[in-house]
Amino acid sequence: MCVGPFAPKIKMPEIVYQGPSEQDVADRRQILTDYTTQSEKNTLAFQNTIDDRIATAQSSTDSILAQLKETSAQSGAGIENIINDAPYAITTEDNVTPEDAQTTAKISKKKKKPSTLKISAGGLSASTGTGVNYGV
After folding, report:
1. Which of 55, 51, 32 is nearest to 43 (CA)?
2. Is 88 helix (H, G, I), strand (E, B) or coil?
3. Alpha-carbon gap, residue 41 to 23, rounded angstroms
4. Which of 26-40, 74-88, 94-108 has the highest mean pLDDT?
5. CA–CA gap between residue 63 and residue 75 (Å, rounded)
6. How far apart (Å, rounded) are the C-alpha atoms in residues 96 and 103?
7. How far apart are CA 40 and CA 37, in angstroms?
8. What's the rounded Cα separation, in Å, for the pair 135 and 62?
9. Cβ(79)–Cβ(72) below 8 Å
10. How far apart are CA 34 and CA 28, in angstroms?
11. Please, which residues have CB within 8 angstroms of residue 130's CB and are 6 or more apart in sequence?
12. Cβ burial, residue 74 (10 Å; 0-12/13-18/19+)
């Protein structure tokens, strides 16, 4: 290796950045612009659909409340009585007497029948081959 004034001169490499062309950059910008526009259109359409559904539900609720008020006005009872007198209304009463109270009785154990299974020990013969065989 040569060192000193007679050493060959080292030429540094030339670094050149070559990125995407102007056409590539313009195409990508156009794709992003198209995506943004389409996304805004979809969002606006979805919002309009939701607003329409909310308005329909609100008008339906208003008509049901109007019918309920009309029914309560005709019957002379308030809305609270209509709700509380519903077929499956759950209420509690303070004036229940002990005779009217529903109670449960103590659960008694069932009587077991005697077993009818009989095992005869005399029926077994004590010879080889009977019983459980264990391998040793």
Report:
1. 51
2. coil
3. 27
4. 26-40
5. 18
6. 13
7. 5
8. 84
9. yes
10. 10
11. 124
12. exposed
Cα 94 from chain centroid (whole Å): 40
| Residue among 76, 94, 95, 77 nearest 85 (CA) | 77
Residue 116 and residue 109 in contact, taking contact as beta carbons nearer than 8 Å: no
**pLDDT by residue (tens digit) across 21-59?**
889 999 999 999 999 999 999 999 999 999 999 999 999
What integer pLDDT is reported at residue 116 of this predicted model?
78
Amino acid at 71: T
Q: How far apart are CA 9 and CA 7, in angstroms?
A: 6
Question: Per residue in 67-77, pLDDT tens?
Answer: 888 887 776 55
Helix residue ranges per DSSP H, 4-131: 22-75, 79-84
Q: Could you tell me the pTM of the whole model? A: 0.38
Taking alpha carbons only, the member of 11, 31, 15 closest to residue 23 is 31
Q: Are 79 and 66 in contact (CB under 8 A)?
A: no
Burial of 82 per CB tally in 10 Å (0-12, 13-18, 19+): middle
How long, in residues, is the chain?
A: 136
